[in-house]
Amino acid sequence: MLVFKRLPAMAVMICALVASASLVWAGDGRPSDWQMGFQQSATAVMDDIDRFHTGLLYTIIAIAGFVLVLLLIVMVRFNARSNPTPSRTTHNTLIEVAWTGIPVLILVAIAIPSFKLLFLQLNTPEADLTVKAVGKQWYWSYSYPDHGKFEFDSVMVRDKDKLRADQPRLLGVDNEMVVPVNKTVRVLTIGNEVIHAFAVPSFGIKIDAIPGRINETWFKATREGVYYGQCSELCGKDHAFMPIAVRVVSDQAFATWVDEAKRKWARDDSTPKSFAAAEQTSPR
Ligand SMILES: [Cu+2]
Fold this sequence. Notes:
Blueprint: H1 2-24, H2 44-77, H3 93-122, E1 129-136, E2 139-143, E3 151-154, E4 177-180, E5 185-191, E6 196-200, E7 205-209, E8 215-219, E9 225-230, E10 243-249, H4 251-264, H5 275-281
Parallel strand pairs: 1-5, 4-10
Antiparallel strand pairs: 1-2, 2-3, 5-8, 6-7, 9-10
The structure holds copper (II) ion.
């Protein structure tokens, strides 16, 4: 029966291993080789998701371990050989109340942080800036409605030789979405022709971009850097090749970038681009 005594210690060891491994193998803003768990969090929402996920994992391991121990006890102590005359007990009120009540309590304990997280994600706080992300077949277009009339396309770098040294293959784009650090960014998404989804794992955001409907999400990045995501709704043949790259920079760098962007991608609203024209002039 030595193995039973050691089970809790073994469970703790496995949990510790899993936890440390996910720290080592979690990419920052991008996936990494042999990654376990999530990419490193860069927002409070993702911190919460991470914590909730880890808490659930431990809960699941504890429940599965408990059931396993019960099964082992039944198999060893109550098999036909070691227990030839079985007990004829059929009901035990205390145990029946317990096995109904305890799971209910566990579910309530899970539901409370789950709803808290849901409200945190869905209640957009007062935003410092708004970015509109339009999902197109198959790239993203960004505009900054409160920073002037400019709009630009963000297309994946297809040619391996054109990738900058710090750009991961299949995630690097020509024009990144740029936002300031420690500012609440409201993201408005919409689909141009089919449903896409705007998702950045390190920010803990994923929201559908639906034609004819504007969806809203938000993030507040706490570290500078480049954070990658991908379209997360099957949207056609190049669904896998329309990454999202968000560069988080200082306030100053952001202001400089806005000035440059206004000159580079000035939008002329007097002649609205038709969908067909947009398709033809898309840089792909
Ligand atoms: Cu898509």
